[in-house]
Amino acid sequence: MADRESHRGGFGTHGGESGAFIERAFREKIVLVGVTLGGADAARTDADLDELAQLIDTAGADEVGRVVQRRRAPDPATYIGKGKVDEILELSEQFDADTVVFDDELSPAQQFNLEKILGRTAIDRTAVILDIFAQNASSQEGQAQVELAQLRYALPRLRRGGRFSQQAGGIGTRGPGETQLEVDRRRIQRRIHKLEAQLRDIKKNRSVQGRSRQRSAQSAVTIVGYTNAGKSRLLNQLTDSGVLVQNRLFATLDAATRRLELPGGERVLLTDTVGFIQKLPHQLVEAFRSTLDVVSEADLLLHVVDAAGPDPDAHIAAVRQVLREIDAGDVPELLVYNKCDLLAGQDIPLGSNKDAIAISAATGEGTDKLLAAMADELRSGAVIVELLVPYARGEVLAAVQRAGHVLANDTDEVGYRIQARMDPASAARLSEWVVG
User: Fold this and answer.
1) In this predicted model, what pLDDT tens digit does every residue of 267-296 receive, in sequence order?
2) Across-strand partners of 259?
3) Which of 106, 366, 383, 393 could form a disulfide with 110 if both were Cys (CB 3.0 to 4.6 A apart)?
4) Is 272 in contact with 302 (CB distance < 8 Å)?
């Protein structure tokens, strides 16, 4: 058996309260493993492994080899067959690999058995994505969300043996029979409860801010899409906001909101969000639910797609799956094919999405058409009303101006006669002053 002590892949350590950021003194050598189950397409497995290679590169490691297998179902003990485990061991020793990464989620038992046989860290795609999030989270909320996801992932993977095998018979434990494993489990559970409470408080504050937005009647537009589709660059192009842009996966974790004025004069709040990915870990969806509320509560989604990417249709499907998971599947959507400047004269792969808008967030091409489409979509649910506001009711006049877009404004002997476009809820609130 390989020397387990000489291969301590950094991916196998989840920061939790000891530190969510993982610093590496070297780039780990990684063997990737993909399994095609049942009648699934082997080409899809290869594409998923290519994406996994991008993920480990983003996390700070290098692929040195990959192993694939077709099976009817995962092996309960090791996910793959015994022969493939031996093949992975031989390949790992040949390249002195530190870590073996599976593209599909491993159960705690499978992970334990594989590490015992291989003599090195064995993890799954979920752990890699958690690692990347831990490196990139910068705000207090983002760090709390990532740590919560890490701890939920780590809790069922606590093991007997090694440093968890000691007896803890001293002060602060339930009794002389409690193992270090039980102490660690209780410590993690307490930390999870604390983080959940912290995120509930943040969500409560965001809810107050949301009610303030509703009172000001500014529409909310949220940018969603696959990771590295160019969402942050689009926010910068439309609002000149200077948000950090990097050509790497999950460069944006913390939502950024900017004001934007549409061609008709309407002002909206435009928000950039964390990117989605295929097989997005359930722990992350749950931990980021408070942040993702901005998606489900939006008036319109800009679904950004990398037109030059390897499989735009698969990326669209993955994003829409996550949108359904966070109860945002029914929010109106504009499909936006970005990076069209990289196609070098090739046709844009719209497929069945003939109404999609083609743009380049890098050059600005197509953004005028996008802004017009946003305005049209938001107006489609609005009504035009005529109001008569007495001169003495300046606060009502201000409310009308906040609630919608003033199309015409005149005066007579009674007061201000205003024609405005606004959403039905705002019109109902101002119904006392509506005359037509």
Assistant:
1) 889 999 888 988 888 888 888 877 788 898
2) 269
3) 106
4) no
